[in-house]
Design a protein that fits this description.
The chain is mostly beta strands. 2% of the residues lie in helices and 49% in strands. It has two helices and 71 strands.
Length: 734
């Protein structure tokens, strides 16, 4: 019969049967019982020469012992003092199952030894088929000079249900003192009480018996106030705190605290007697005083003689709040609506810094408008009671929004992270998106929350010279390149790219549009030319957007340049509302990209001088014999003929882009070549390249907002001549 008390097993004779082509395999030997296991329930800790107390769990497999009796030896390093072993055998294992072990009896191996280091355990089985478990409590004193892992060694005879092994039952060393603080409180320039500091030994005696067993040093500008402080020993046998007081301040709980060093910056706690079990001490009610002429706002970090070597115990600041960006700025496309911005952080220095009813405003630069209003990002915020009212638009330009503080923060300073902000971006906006913070709540500053890029760039392969008065002049090719995939839209309302020529320049024929790289798809046969006001454009429609940034090539561009176009660059612009590159509205400019495509250098052969006639009271005028229409008729006032400045300037060859109007200053500016002429409504002074010229009349405005001026002043400056025929009331300009 098999003996359950042994790890070896009988061998059953192997045999094989062969029948009907079926092979029965031989029976293998029965497996031996698994080894006993040793584990620590409680690992002790001590200094060299100090006391340890550990608990070990011993387990044997099911049915391994039966009714047998086995022995197991346990020993510890030599020179261990007062080593003892106490057993504990539970009646049941795994709830209600009876224990396989009936009893365990420890006895010294050397019965007469004064300081035994080895015990033999007699283990008696109960006959149960369950597993067996018993516990050993090991006590003693670590040998002097010992350091590191203190181990117990287990030994058993060959064939025993027990096996040899070793187990760390204590760690020996000088130990560590760990320090923590419950919470980081805010204090103002008037000082304040910090939260409890907790000091824990990881083993007995880690706190030396010294005058500075616990040491906390504040930075410059701060000092300790212990008047309401207390030191409490939560546990730790034999730990005794010293008395450093020379006078009685009525608080006996702080007598072990010394704050006399370093002008009050260093706090010390005196220990007279070390602990014999790991101790836990609490420092409560400590205050910090602030010298605001020296103290730096922010975290108050103390240096310690424990772990960690430094820690934040409070945060200093007055009733202020600040702003900063959260994470990286977002990227926006020009000409798009509802483009996301990055997140904005509003952070208080002290609880209640943002007062109820005070306002916070967020303002955008020109050519940006608010779309999505801010929301609090709760997962990244520390609201502490601070709430804001709903955001509202301020003014009519869409650039400012405003909120007010609904409820202030309580107890702790608040931090709000604002998310979900979005803007509409003008087509011509490029660069950083600065958000200016203001209002009556005390917040101010300028934060970059985004960076806008043009959806496309446009380049020209060349910019050849062209002449006025000639048609069919070939210029270089254009390349329109996406900044990112899907930068060019293809929706029903936004699927056209328009390239505008300046006034006076026309497309002799329709250019060719094709995709040079990428997977953008153009609508077949959609290339065309058209007129928008006084400007000509070439266009193409988009069938589908790209998945990789694409480039459109525009070739076969031939121009007709009329005689009104001044010398200098001919600049093409991609612009227009509701196009494949612009879904915005309400902005003053719709230009996405611009590039010089040619340069007017000399007139065409022959007579190229302009001949223009205006008639008093008539909205029709002629330009080189071609009749055109004015939106305001010339008139006579005080025997002077007043003509619309814009039409006269165009007759003088001034490009419309160089005819400027500043509504705020009521000033018109004309630029041609090296001359800059400025005239202000109601002013008798004209500026020519900054020099003042006195006039006997002043410019004035007539409906529908045209600047009117006696024509002679402009003709003289720009080298033209004029003649007035009183009989026909006609002004002729050459």
């Amino acid at each position: 019969m098999f003996n359950a008390a042994k790890k070896t097993a009988s061998t059953v004779a192997a045999f094989a049967v062969l029948a009907s082509g079926i092979v029965i395999p031989a029976v293998s030997p029965m497996a031996a019982y698994a080894d006993a296991t040793y584990s620590t329930v409680k690992t002790g800790s001590a200094e060299p020469g100090g006391q340890f107390s550990s608990k070990v769990r011993v387990e044997i497999p099911q049915g391994a012992l039966g009714n047998s009796t086995e022995t197991l030896r346990i020993r510890v390093p030599k020179n261990t003092k007062s080593f003892s072993v106490t057993e504990s055998v539970p009646a049941n294992v795994d709830g209600t199952t009876l224990n396989q072990i009936a009893s365990v009896t420890p006895a010294q191996v050397d019965a007469g030894a004064t300081n035994p280091t080895e015990y033999e355990l007699t283990v008696v089985g109960s006959g149960q088929e369950s597993k067996g478990i018993f516990y050993l409590t090991l006590d003693g004193y670590i040998p002097s000079g010992f350091n590191g892992d203190f181990k117990a060694t287990f030994e058993a005879s060959s064939g025993s249900v027990f096996n040899d092994g070793a187990l760390t039952i204590a760690t020996v060393g000088s130990g560590t003192v760990n320090m923590t603080i419950d919470d980081i409180k805010n204090i103002s320039s008037s000082g304040g009480t910090i939260d409890d500091i907790r000091v824990k030994e990881d083993r007995p005696g880690s706190l030396d018996d010294a005058s500075d067993s616990i040491k906390l040093k504040l930075p410059e500008g701060y000092k300790w106030d212990k008047s309401d402080a207390a030191v409490k020993i939560n546990w730790g046998d034999n730990l005794a705190l010293g008395d450093v007081e020379t006078t009685d301040d009525g608080n006996a709980d702080n007598n072990a605290i010394d704050v006399s060093s370093d002008g009050g910056r260093t706090l010390k706690v005196k220990v007279d007697d070390k602990s014999t079990t790991a101790a836990y001490v609490t420092l409560s009610g400590l205050k910090i005083e602030v010298d605001e002429s020296v103290a730096k706002s922010g975290d108050i970090t103390v240096t310690t003689n424990g772990q960690p070597s430094s820690m934040v115990v409070a945060k200093y600041g007055d009733y202020n709040a600040s702003i900063k960006a959260f994470g990286e700025p977002a990227t926006e496309k020009a000409g798009r609506n509802d483009e996301d911005l990055g997140k904005l952080v509003i952070e208080e220095d002290m609880a209640g810094s943002l007062t109820e009813g005070r306002s916070i405003t967020l303002s955008l630069p020109e050519n940006l408008k608010w779309n999505g209003m801010p929301e609090v990002d709760a997962s990244n915020s520390e609201e502490n009671g601070l709430t804001l009212n709903s955001w509202q638009a301020v003014g009519t330009d869409g650039r400012m929004i405003k909120t007010t503080v609904a409820t202030p923060s309580e107890d702790d300073a608040a931090k709000l992270v604002l998310k979900s902000m979005s803007v509409d971006v003008a087509p011509n906006y490029n660069g950083d998106v600065h958000v200016t913070v203001g209002g009556t709540a005390g917040l101010s500053g300028d934060i970059v929350l985004g960076k806008t890029v043009s959806p496309v760039t446009m380049t020209a392969s060349s910019a050849p010279e062209v002449k006025i008065g000639i048609s069919g002049q070939q210029v270089g090719d254009l390349s329109i390149t996406e900044a990112a995939a899907e930068a060019v839209m293809a929706s029903a309302d936004h699927n056209e790219i328009r390239i505008y020529a300046p006034t006076g320049v026309d497309f002799t024929s329709t250019p060719k549009f094709e995709v040079a790289s990428g997977d953008l798809v153009l609508q077949a046969d959609s290339a065309s030319t058209g007129t928008d006001g006084d400007q000509k454009y070439a266009s193409v429609k988009i069938k589908s957007t790209s998945s990789t940034p694409s480039t459109i090539k525009v070739s076969g561009i031939k121009l007709t340049v009329d005689r009104t176009v001044p010398e200098g660059d001919i600049t093409f612009k991609i612009k227009g509302a509701k196009t494949a590159l612009n879904e915005t509205s309400g902005f003053s400019s719709s230009t996405i990209a611009a590039v010089p495509i040619a340069k007017v250098v000399t007139p065409a052969p022959g007579d190229v001088k302009a001949n223009v006639t205006f008639k008093i009271g008539d909205t029709k005028y002629t330009f080189n014999g071609v009749e055109k229409t004015l939106d305001v008729a010339p008139y006579i006032k005080n025997d002077r003929t007043y003509l619309p400045v814009r039409y006269v300037a165009e007759s003088l060859g001034i490009n419309s882009s160089n005819i400027l109007w500043n509504n705020e200053t009521q000033t018109a500016t004309l630029i041609k070549g090296d001359k800059v002429v400025q005239m202000k409504i109601g002013s008798y002074t004209m500026l020519v390249n900054g020099a003042s010229i006195a006039m006997d009349t002043a410019p004035e405005i007539m409906e529908p907002g045209r600047v009117m001026l006696p024509v002679g002043w402009l003709l003289n400056i720009f080298g033209a001549t004029g003649n007035y025929d009183a009989a026909t009331q006609t002004v002729t300009i050459n």
